[in-house]
Every structure is written in structure tokens, then in C-alpha cells.
Amino acid sequence: MSRPEPSRKLLAAFKPWFFPLGCAALYGLASVYDPEKMILSLRAGGRIFLQLGLPLCVALTMMILLNRFLSPSLASRLMGHQAGAKGVLLSTLAGIVSMGPIYAWYPLFTTLKKKGASSFCIANFLCCRSVKPVLIPVLIGYFGWELTGLFLFMTLTGALLTATCVGLLCPFDGDGS
Predict the structure, then answer these.
(1) Distance from CA of residue 3 to its chain's centroid?
(2) Are 90 and 79 in contact (CB under 8 A)?
């Protein structure tokens, strides 16, 4: 077995940095030719990073904390088949207050499912994400109390019905699949 050449080792060490360094070089060129457009593109990139990066960091942090502190027995008690009304309430409230893009939550749901959460509670969480507390005053302002109350009631009832169907059609099998 031959030893890799030093140049190959150096190339392998810098390989993950080619794309970021190439982007930085392109931004450097853009700043020479059109600094205003370069600043606008940096701002747009920063906004995208904040929109995607923050929720992903929150979900990653929650996954780390769940893996550290949530035992399968606790997950089963909180969101498992035996959780009852507490599990429904917990998944509903968690879905309502959750933020960020939904795909950032998928790894967390997989972890919860592997630790014993029911398909019902996960589906309920997903459906309840459509209710956003910060938008309720806007709904009331535009449509009034009656329509807003009816809309929220129907949305949460629909979430429970959908979660019930998912729970019946996708029974818990214990391995997260």
C-alpha cells in the first residue's frame, strides 16, 4: 500500500472549501465591477440564510436535547398511544407555536416516532401548524371575531379528524417507519 502524495493530501484537505472560496472570489469580482448589485445579493443571501438557518438550528437543537433528555418511556407517556388528552393537547399546542419551514421539523418527528410518539400526535402537530397565533389579530381585524373563531374551530377540528385517520391508517410499529 503506497502513501498518498503530499499534494493529494493538501488537495483533499481543501476540497470542502472549493465552493465557498469560489463564491467568495465571484463576490470579490462582482464588488469590483458592480458593488451595488453585490451588496444587494449579499443582503438577499443573508435573508435566505436567516429564513432557513434559524429554523434548522432550532430543530437541530431540539433534536439534540430530545436525544439527551427524552427517554422512550417519557415520549410514550407524553405523545404515545396511552397519552390520551394530554398527548392531544401537547401536540396541538406544539403545532400551533412551532415556526419555520416544515421540512426542518421532519428529523425531529422521526426521532419522536422512534422514541414512541404515535402517528396520531405527529399528524396532529403537522395539521395544527396552520394556526399561527401572531396572525389571529390580523384575521380578527379583517374578518371579525365570528369568522375567525369559526375558522380556528374548523381548522383544529379538521386537524383532529386528519390525525385520527392517519392514526388508524398508519398504526404505530415501534421502529420509526
Answers:
(1) 44
(2) yes
